[in-house]
Amino acid sequence: MATIDGLPPLREVIATHGLSARKALGQNFLLDLNLTAKIARAAGDLSGCDVLEVGPGPGGLTRGLLAEGARRVVAIEKDARCLPALAEISAAYPGQLEVLNEDALQVDWAAHLTPPIKVVANLPYNVGTELLVRWLTPKLWPPEWQSLTLMFQREVAERIVAQPGGKAYGRLAVLAQWRCSAKIALTLPPEAFTPPPKVRSAVVHLEALPEPRFAADPKVLERVVAAGFNQRRKMLRAALKGVAPDIEDRILAAGLKPTDRAEQVPIEGFCALARQVAAG
Asked: Which of 95, 130, 133, 136 has the most CB atoms around it within 10 Å of its CB?
């Protein structure tokens, strides 16, 4: 990688700019440019695409994305200490990198990108799940992005791809798999990062489906799923009693058992129940 873009190794970049990772910002820098290139490739063909990256830090993944042929990269970086290092990458790829010194939870990122759009990021641990939920629950579907290729703690990644019947299956699995195809693209050991986190990490690749797998009102589905998993040890009739006064009848009408627990209900079942609840 360093020979491809002519920029120095990341350890040298970090030393030059004094970029120690800050726990308060959820930072863990990925320094192996072979790995960052591998993550970029997990997003598929980037040529002709604008790419949104959140939390680029010193720019390892940014360099991977540009070297793999991204048309443009818009990188949102809250930590102003990283801006000089990112400016060096911008100079090496004239006109292809825009850096926004903003909070990813506040900025209107879509205004800076031209479709087709892919999101590729080593997400800061402290905002990763919230950003994912926002990307999965836009007002309109299909969304402005084609795919999400995101690094999480492995435990979170496993929750996203989980199947019914296990402890990992929950709200994230339903939200993600209702509207996307989801898979774990690769896993990374703690020693790949500086500083090494206490957990393993994994990259999840989600492709937006043209339409959700099953019909349901998104807000009603979200309410039903949240109620079910907020009290996941309870049977559906107890966990969902606040959703509708005659919830047991609606559970039966959806083809489910009132004695089932949320983790036993497939996505199709939750959608059927959401339709029954929405019917009033």
From this structure: 136
